[in-house]
Amino acid sequence: MHSLYKLIIIITLLGIVNIYSATTVSANNQTLSGSIASGYSALKIFLEDEQYLTTIRRTKMVITFSDISDNSKKLIDDIADSSEQALVELEAFAQQKPVVVFEDFSEEMIAKATLDSLRMETAKEFLFEADDFEKNLLLSQLKVLPVISHLAEQLEKKETNQKRKTWLNELAKKYKDYYQQVDDSISLASPKV
Q: Domain count of the chain?
């Protein structure tokens, strides 16, 4: 499980490195291109994954006839709902000038294939491993939430559209707050030594 998280972080960092490279704005059609478009595409993928947390939780509940604690349930569902809402907002903001054109990552790309494999493996672990589902779900959020907030921060630094810049700042703060809530939740659940 730890190697899975390390691989996710490595792939994420590779995506973030692309954001730091030079960005270009096409004067003809006012679209963002280059690394900033890749950054937005990566953000979209992470938010798409996060929006399914409630579905994963409910599927696990049906399979095992058990659920996670009420506090964790609310937190996970809030993250999923926020991610779904953020996707709607991202799509709307992407239409503002300069327009963000999301990249479809090629299936032949090693990073895309690796990310897809990691996502499938993580989903299998969540659904079919009986022990510590709640803890594993929360721990996965400790890995993903900082990536989303960091990605939003880096995009904000490169963004020229003031409305998107403000939205990215708020998104980064929201996901940092979720991270803190998850961390607090895990800390409270851990036995004192």
A: 1
Nearest-angstrom CA–CA distance, 119 and 17: 21
Per-residue pLDDT tens digits for 103-147:
877 666 666 666 667 666 766 666 666 678 888 889 889 989 999
Question: What are 6-29's pLDDT values in tens digits?
Answer: 555 555 555 555 544 433 333 334
Q: Could you tell me if 23 and 40 are in contact, meaning their C-beta atoms sit under 8 angstroms apart?
A: no
Within a domain: 9: yes
Residue 22: inside a domain, yes or no?
A: no
Gap between the Cα atoms of 164 and 159, Å rounded? 7
Is 115 within the bounds of a domain? yes
**b/e for 153-174, b at 16 or more Cβ within 10 A?**
bbbbebbebeebeebbeebbeb
Q: Cis before residue 191, ω within 30 degrees of 0? A: no
Q: What is the mean pLDDT of the chain?
A: 79
The pLDDT score that the predictor gives to residue 5 is: 54
Q: Is residue 175 part of a domain?
A: yes
